[in-house]
Design goal:
alpha+beta; two-stranded antiparallel sheet
Length: about 130
């Protein structure tokens, strides 16, 4: 764990990518909102800033939180929607979470409150790359 329970760690970044690899091995799955917009199956991005503390002996390791399958069901009325059970409805973003939203072929980032400078960097610098690849 970092100095605080909200400080990102290497273990968090590594687990984030492993969880997303398990959930969407070919990076080709999109979920559809009731509006018809699409969100990619990135299971850690919506809860990007949430850290799961795991005690291993005397060491506490911070792993990435992740959304659960019911999160991607726009008609779901009962959670839990993420492992830490902090979300209250489908497609909700945690504080510091984000998602890519595709509407009518256009891509945009949607973000929860209080995103980190890293997420802001991604929004500003990586979105143009995605537009070129769509």
């Amino acid at each position: 764990m970092g100095k605080t329970s909200s400080t990102p760690t290497v273990a968090q970044a590594f687990s984030h990518e492993i969880f997303e690899l398990i959930a969407n091995q070919n990076v080709n799955v999109w979920w559809q909102l009731s509006s018809g917009s699409l969100v990619p199956a990135e299971v850690c991005d919506p809860v990007q800033s949430n850290i799961i503390p795991v005690k291993i002996g005397t060491v506490t390791v911070g792993l990435s939180d992740y959304i659960l399958p019911v999160w991607s069901d726009p008609q779901a009325t009962k959670g839990p929607y993420n492992y830490l059970n902090t979300l209250t409805k489908p497609f909700q973003l945690a504080n510091g979470g984000y998602a890519i939203l595709m509407k009518g072929g256009a891509l945009n980032y949607v973000k929860g409150a209080s995103v980190t400078p890293y997420v802001e960097y991604r929004i500003q610098n990586l979105l143009p790359y995605f537009h070129k690849s769509v």
